[in-house]
Amino acid sequence: MEALAMETDKEKVEAEKETTEALLAEGRVFRPLPQLVVDANLDPNDYEDALKQGRSDLEAFWGEAAQELHWFKQWNTVLDRSDAPFFKWFAGGKTNIAYNALDCHVKTHRKNKVAIIFEGESGARERMTYYDLYRAANKFANVLKSLGIKKGDRVAIYLPNIPEIAVVMPGCAKIGAVHSVVYGGFSALALRERINHAEARLVVTVDGFHRNGKVVKLKEVVDEAMTASPTVETVVVVQRSGVEIDMSDGRYLWFHDLMDGEPAQFETVEMDANDPLYILYTSGTTGKPKGVVHCHGGYMVGINRTLKWVFDIKETDIFWCAADPGWVTGHSYIVYGPLIAGTTTVMYEGHPLFPGPDRMWQIIEKYGINILYTAPTTIRMLMRFGSQHPKKHDLSTLRLLGTVGEPINPEAWVWYYENIGNQNCPVMDTWWQTETGMFMVAPTPCNVLKPGSAFKPFPGVHVDVVDANGEPVDPGKGGHVVVREPWPAMLTTLYKDPEKYKEVYWSKIPGAYLAGDIATKDKDGYFWFQGRSDDVLKIAGHRIGTAEVESALVSHKHVAEAACIGVPDKVRGEVAKAHVRKVLGPVVVIRGITFQDKLPKTRSGKIMRRVLKARELGLKEGDLSTLED
Ligand code: ATP
Ligand code: MG
């Protein structure tokens, strides 16, 4: 009996393996699922029309998208190019993103609908309706007013993934203050640098939160940052974990005390479409973080349209973007995007592996989540723990999956598709940046997908792959990723450094925005992102992206993750060459392989190849403030 059972298991495993191989077979594509197409927000026929209109009449396309939202005053011009590259979207228009995210809903049937589901690491759940959130954001706007914060003042938010951050962010927006969220995993030094650069007058933080079974005492980090943050007048402290903290410094005030004293009515300030909404520093994968500025008008139009079409978001959805609000992904697609769309957004406080490797699957089952959006680094990590974990849970509510942050290797894509989506959920690979604010290259559920490709530019977005002169490259050839036309959620400048904004993004390829990534387009026009142009390998005249080599290494069953750097050395290593050679051909020569338990990553989970390269070549390591470990 036992032998028989073993035999069957082995057969099962073999059968499974075959499926995976078939799914991964060369040229394999994934056709849209009929049941998704029928209900899609963007009908496949309309997709073609949208593409056409996005090409022929950019302004009409985005002008229509903007009509979906609330404006106190209609714009005069959809796109004012007169001060390029400081493009002004919806110039003359007056709006407020928080009005669209909250005030609009409380006048409708959504008033009593759940806006936020919060899952604490302990498993405790909290829910806030749109009306709860609206009242809280109003109170917080009143708190800011009472503390003397005015339109245009900067507020630093050093909070983890807890509901209060979704109160504080729109609360700032309501009064016209500019928020600068600093990821809760950053050190005191990184926090202080960001506070001082933004000259924040106020900081919002929390006593502590739960991560990996421990209480992270965030307020203590703020104490350290405060020793040299001269612009800060007030620190508002949210009480959540209940750990004992020292509040004796006159600058510290409790959030709940302040909130209790304020009315729940606030008249949301009318903002110019191009007034700043927030500053957000980039992840620092390629160098010192840049202070990206986004505004109210164009930004909300861009995130709303992309969320509705790419994730096909419906009011009835429970949407889980498993990022942190400290990154642009969280700004656009945990907080503002889902709230504007009137859907339910999920926030999880803790670590994805706490208390075990099935925590994420358990959360999906518990809340009946419909859409999961996460990063390749998380998918690869969970993949390493095996498919037995998702199998223990009912994931049948899922309709769509998404990924962002790094190129996803086809193995991880297929694992995600098979084991999490049960072959019923297309994987939306979304390429974008802190600077772009919104998805730029991404499919919709109506498109034919290829694992490892982020599909094509979103309608109305003009991304291309070009050579150093700005000429399009042939299919299969690597080149620079550029955007040829402005897009609504684009950054408006780099904070306090407009010259650098021009220099970094708009000076190298004439008339186009330079993203700093390299990619190839295949003969069908699909984009394959290859990594950063700073990291590109130049081997015997061939330009090869790190992603290509890393994906080849990761496709070996004993490799969980890989980082590849170019070294100026002619010596040809033999180690493990066979596998990479088999996948990529003889051009790619591996000089050497070092095995490590962990790769250097940013706190947002991106591999920092520049750190490996600096160590290998004995160069300066540069800014390490965003390094995870
Ligand atoms: P810095 O600009 O400081 O180096 P960063 O570029 O890592 O930091 P982000 O804006 O968080 O900061 O990351 C954007 C980058 O992430 C993109 O430029 C790209 O390299 C990578 N990326 C994001 N999504 C994808 C994706 N779907 N496929 C491939 N790469 C992606
Ligand atoms: Mg970048």
Structural description of this entry:
The protein is of the alpha/beta class and 629 residues long. Mean pLDDT is 93; it is low at 1-8 and 571-576. The strands form 7 sheets. Strands 12-11-8-6-7-14-15-23 form an 8-stranded mixed beta sheet, sandwiched between helices. Strands 5-4-17-16-18-19-20 form a 7-stranded mixed beta sheet, sandwiched between helices. Strands 21-22-24-25 form a 4-stranded antiparallel beta sheet. Helix content is 34%, strand content 18%. The radius of gyration is 24 Å and the shape is globular. Helix 6 (130-146) crosses helix 7 (163-175), helix 8 packs across helix 9 (218-226) and helix 18 crosses helix 19. Bound molecules: adenosine-5'-triphosphate (ATP) and magnesium ion (MG).
Q: Could you estimate the helical fraction of the residues in percent?
A: 25-40%
The poorly predicted ranges are: 1-8, 571-576
Tell me the Rg in angstroms. 24 Å
This entry's quaternary arrangement is single chain
Bound molecules: adenosine-5'-triphosphate, magnesium ion
Output the structural class.
alpha/beta
Shape call = globular
**Strand arrangement, largest sheet?**
12-11-8-6-7-14-15-23
Q: What can be said about the biggest beta sheet?
A: 8 strands, mixed
Strand content: 15-25%
